[in-house]
Amino acid sequence: xxxxxxxxxxxxxxxxxxxxxxxxxxxxxxxxxxxxxxxxxxxxxxxxxxxxxxxxxxxxxxxxxxxxxxxxxxxxxxxxxxxxxxxxxxxxxxxxxxxxxxxxxxxxxxxxxxxxxxxxxxxxxxxxxxxxxxxxxxxxxxxxxxxxxxxxxxxxxxxxxxxxxxxxxxxxxxxxxxxxxxxxxxxxxxxxxxxxxxxxxxxxxxxxxxxxxxxxxxxxxxxxxxxxxxxxxxxxxxxxxxxxxxxxxxxxxxxxxxxxxxxxxxxxxxxxxxxxxxxxxxxxxxxxxxxxxxxxxxxxxxxxxxxxx
Length: 309
Description:
The chain is mainly alpha-helical. The protein has a single domain, classed as Ribonucleotide Reductase, subunit A (Orthogonal Bundle). The protein is 64% helix and 6% strand. The protein has twelve helices and five strands. A three-stranded antiparallel beta sheet has the order 1-2-3. A two-stranded antiparallel ribbon has the order 4-5. Strand 4 and strand 5 form a beta hairpin.
């Protein structure tokens, strides 16, 4: 009986890539930084209809999702929640981009996994709030989720360091956003919803500080000039994914302005000038290696005007 060649069940294969000694060194240092400082052991969680928030001495605060139906929010606040949820729901794209850029950085890859788990909770929380307050049904939420994902988000940046630098600006912006949403929910008499939004805001602050630490402690020490060039470039070109992903950007911006997130005319900071000062300038100023004059110049370049008030 003659021998038979069996067709392979799978046609998987691999290709080889080069990993430089510099990549290995940065990946190792980032891993150590993550393990020592930024790997979380306790974080708030949504499971089986309960939001569990860790407190001191191993105690927890529980918010029953079904109990949110006793709180009311305005149509405007619901629109904002829907918009932020839509942006959060592009998480598969953010994770895909992150995995592609962090594949050869052991520490950043693990940070990306932790970040993704926490960001997923944000979308789940916003969806639960919309459903329990009667602004959307579960079927509507599911339909919108898949409609959103018919579009694929791609990062505007081309290197891992630029991606991380952009995350610093982005996470600071979303921290301010969820802070503003928290205060608005309190004013509307929705304390449980405000408590959940405050948890999201704290996540964003944690992410911002971690990404900033990676830039400062890892990338800047390895390549000072290149790192400065990248953070300034990202600052000049900054914009949030929501600016292109939101289907009704005019209404979105109007609502953001009305809750104070994009500033007010009374303060002299509104719209793009608010972003230039509170996001671009403030984030650059938080880097110890960026001189104040350079941060101001870059914010002016972002603004497209000669001076920033």
